[in-house]
Structure prediction request, 60 residues.
Amino acid sequence: MGDIELKNQIKLERAEFISRLMIDAELSQRDVQIGLCLLHESLLKIQKNTEHKPNSINSD
Prediction:
């Protein structure tokens, strides 16, 4: 499986996971793993964004 095919497969799995969340369907072990990966990626992005932005609250 090439890089593009792998990326497309990951995107498809994420979309299916989010779809199941939105309709409140039963989640499989694989769904839980995908959800944890998405959460981890989101937290890393938040951490990266907060580390590189100055704290505007205390900038007086």
The first helix runs from residue 3 to 22.
